[in-house]
């Protein structure tokens, strides 16, 4: 009889993903962190009942804070990506809708700025 390995629990996977996101951000890799954040989002969508509430709240807060930090440094495109991530988590986190108006206003501002960047790319001079 072959011993089958069990898949790690949702709890364990969610915590592992948090560590990976923090690690990627500590290395200034927003791309890698967003990739893991997307994995966490898919895990949450498939396992809402088992996904730890503290991890889901952390994901919402982390993605929102990252968007604001990037916005403050005028990194508009990355800020928009993180804001989009936070909006997705807002839909899933219990109590997340409390911030909906503020988050949507910020996202609309990012969309305007992104459109401006696309029509007027920054010059190198």
In words, what does this structure look like?
InterPro entries: Spo22/ZIP4. This is PIK-related kinase FAT domain-containing protein. The chain is mostly helical. The protein has one domain (10-119). The chain is built from five helices and no strands. The chain has helices at residues 10-26, 30-46, 53-72, 76-92, 100-119. Helix 1 (10-26) packs antiparallel against helix 2, helix 2 (30-46) runs parallel beside helix 4 (76-92) and helix 4 runs antiparallel to helix 5 (100-119). The model has no long low-confidence stretch (mean pLDDT 88).
For the record, give the distance between the C-alpha atoms at the N and C termini, rounded to a whole number.
69 Å
Relative strand content:
under 5%
What gross morphology would you assign? Answer: globular
- Classify the helix fraction into a percent range: over 70%
Mean pLDDT: 88
The number of helices is 5
Low-confidence stretches: none
The tally of strands reads: 0
The structural domain count equals 1
**What structural category characterises the helix and strand content?**
mainly alpha
Whole-angstrom Rg: 17 Å
Major β-sheet annotation: none
The sequence of SSEs as H and E is HHHHH
């Amino acid at each position: 009889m072959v011993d089958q390995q069990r898949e790690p629990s949702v709890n364990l996977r969610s915590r592992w993903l948090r560590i990976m996101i923090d690690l990627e951000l500590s290395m200034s890799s927003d791309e890698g962190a967003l990739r893991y954040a997307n994995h966490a989002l898919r895990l949450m969508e498939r396992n809402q009942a088992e996904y730890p509430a503290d991890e889901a709240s952390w994901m919402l807060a982390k993605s929102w804070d990252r968007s604001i930090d990037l916005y403050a440094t005028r990194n508009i495109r990355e800020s928009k990506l993180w804001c989009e991530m936070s909006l997705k988590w807002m839909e899933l986190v219990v109590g997340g809708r409390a911030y909906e108006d503020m988050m949507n206003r910020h996202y609309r501002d990012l969309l305007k700025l992104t459109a401006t960047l696309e029509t007027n790319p920054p010059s190198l001079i």
